[in-house]
TrEMBL record:
<dbReference type="Pfam" id="PF01658">
    <property type="entry name" value="Inos-1-P_synth"/>
</dbReference>
<dbReference type="GO" id="GO:0008654">
    <property type="term" value="P:phospholipid biosynthetic process"/>
</dbReference>
<dbReference type="GO" id="GO:0006021">
    <property type="term" value="P:inositol biosynthetic process"/>
</dbReference>
<protein>
    <submittedName>
        <fullName>Myo-inositol-1-phosphate synthase</fullName>
        <ecNumber>5.5.1.4</ecNumber>
    </submittedName>
</protein>
<feature type="domain" description="Myo-inositol-1-phosphate synthase GAPDH-like">
    <location>
        <begin position="209"/>
        <end position="313"/>
    </location>
</feature>
<feature type="region of interest" description="Disordered">
    <location>
        <begin position="368"/>
        <end position="394"/>
    </location>
</feature>
<dbReference type="GO" id="GO:0004512">
    <property type="term" value="F:inositol-3-phosphate synthase activity"/>
</dbReference>
<dbReference type="InterPro" id="IPR036291">
    <property type="entry name" value="NAD(P)-bd_dom_sf"/>
</dbReference>
<keyword id="KW-0413">Isomerase</keyword>
<comment type="similarity">
    <text>Belongs to the myo-inositol 1-phosphate synthase family.</text>
</comment>
<dbReference type="Pfam" id="PF07994">
    <property type="entry name" value="NAD_binding_5"/>
</dbReference>
<dbReference type="InterPro" id="IPR013021">
    <property type="entry name" value="Myo-inos-1-P_Synthase_GAPDH"/>
</dbReference>
<dbReference type="InterPro" id="IPR002587">
    <property type="entry name" value="Myo-inos-1-P_Synthase"/>
</dbReference>
Amino acid sequence: MSASLSRPRVGVWLIGARGSVATTVVTGCAAITAGLHPPTGMVTETPAFTDSGLPALSDLVFGGHDTLDCPLPKRAETLTAGGVLPPGIATAVAAELEAADREIRPGGPTSGDTRSEAELITAFADDIRDFVHRHELERAVVVNVASTEPASPGPDAPPPASTLYALAALRAGCPYVNFTPSEGMHHTAAAREAERSGLPYAGRDGKTGQTLLRAVLGPMFAQRALRVRAWSGTNLLGGGDGAALADPAAAAAKNAGKERVLADTLGTVPEGEVHIDDVPALGDWKTAWDHIAFDGFLGTRMILQTIWQGCDSALAAPLVLDLARLTARAHEAGLSGPLDALGFYFKEPVGDGPSGLAEQYEELARFGRSLGQADEEGQGVGPVAQPDDMGEAL
């Protein structure tokens, strides 16, 4: 029996499965497994997590929901042409891309979709259950990597698509990770069901660029007792993210996490705003500028400016793989509720935890060690949850 069949396999169900991030995740996992590239950017592949009991990359099986119909191999070709994926990789892992593409099911709601919210949740949950059953998976983790939704108009607003997917994940007995600023599990209906489900979950909004720097620089200013007077930023984005964030409501949801990091690490909110501009010519690449005005000794006024230029999909993909593996292992170890220790990866982490990157990493490393000790200490390790007795969310 082959190694891939002798070990339990774990599903990774991606919401937005034909987007740039998801395509890079599937391509990257296949390339690393085949030995074509090292796992650069994957924290879970560093020595600190060797004994954490995480599922192997070769044991991950991909599927998902999307409202787009562009096949993954074609999407990978486009990303290659844009410089996101290295030449030849999409061809080398074409079989893996095609296999994942066969597991993508229609998402929603789309224009003209007459299904109720409850019907959509049921359909999405059935898709996930079918995926787990057909592949005989030990468990599956649902990860939202879809485009950012507009911020919710209020607590009584109908649940957006991201929340319907989150509820479907819970209904299917799967842990859930929200890598986007969208509402997802934060909606009151989903929050209630999450508490009842006993499943672990994590999020919100992956920390990949500008906010990553802020999580490092904010504590630096605070620890050196330097008073920050103003902190302004500008983002130039292309691709689907740029188009989605051209909507002021969606941009507001994105910026909330950036501002929270400064408030938490500085202990105050300095003057200044973050502006997001859609520049389609940039494709999947982004540029972020920060202008920081601060006071030094005797009130001497000084300035720090930073420039971050990167590829959003390549920055996000290794984090998504990390999160899928860590969350799957947390589920296997019987953990439930918000996974505070995964705040290292997010702008707006669920649960309680530090906001400075160094402290977040230490907490993550401790979490990794605890996962490795879970089996030795007799912590519960069970099969995929069967949530048939869960109440109707809507």
